[in-house]
Specification:
The protein is mainly alpha-helical and 128 residues long. It is built from 4 helices and no strands.
Amino acid sequence: MKRKHVISIFGIATLIVLAYIIYKIFAGVDIEFLEIMAMGVFSMIFLYASTWGNKKEKNGIFQDEELGQRIVEKSSKVSYTILYFVILATVLADKIVNEASNVFLLFVLVFATVIFPLFQYLIAKRYQ
């Protein structure tokens, strides 16, 4: 399938799911887990198709080239940092609102704190 078609299909699907979620919010209906997941998956595929080129069509930036690898490296570190602070803010907000800490959120925060340095260590050991 051509890159333009993938971008169009998943862009439209993302907008439809977003509109449905907004409709449910205004209607006062609960938003289901699968709707949130669909929004995330459709957005992910749309952004992935918009970012990377297609070798068959010979357009865009390819993920396996040097520039593509640098983009992946930088975006991974930035997105990890943003995700870490979002988790931290969620734990703090949960503590303020509920006056107690959610054990599962604390586990995710500890995991997010440890995972990046752990993988740096493991990858560094592989090169030594």
